User: What shape does this take?
Amino acid sequence: MNNEFLYHKLLFINENLKRRNANEKNISRGQGRILAILKYKEGISTRELSEILNIKVPSVNETLNKLIKNGYIRKETSPEDKRVLLIYLTDKGKEYKFQKSKDIDIFDCLDENQKESFDECLNLISKELHERMKAENPEKYDEMLECRKEVLKKYFDCDITQSEWYQLLEKN
Assistant: This one.
């Protein structure tokens, strides 16, 4: 089997899934990520959102402005520091329902053995990507993982090292 063919087939499947599952309520993926975080924990600053999402503050602000314009969020001055704006969901934001993927049942065409084999293949590919990222820039890779651990612990009281996903990456 040709690797280039497999790679392009994977990209094709990904593009089709994104196209089919585009949100009908005009919420971009980035906007959805912010709404999901705010549904979990409101009253966080732009800087904190930037840290959680690992994107620059101007990009966060651009996305926040779209959410404000569409009535999903509001900003309020922090009572502790008047220079800081905290972000909250509006009623519309609180009522927003994330839709399940239209194609979540796409795997019904596979029997249980095929699903398990496919899962193993995805795990191997994911691990390989992480190994390549680590080999290309070990310091940046370790920094990225450490940053993720700190953000999850700091804002969500979660421990990434306990997750199945992290343990997969740590396996030899």
Notes: The helical segments are 3-20, 29-40, 46-53, 57-69, 91-95, 112-136, 138-156, 164-170. The radius of gyration is 19 Å. The chain is about 60% helix and 5% strand. The CA atoms of residues 76 and 135 lie 44 Å apart.
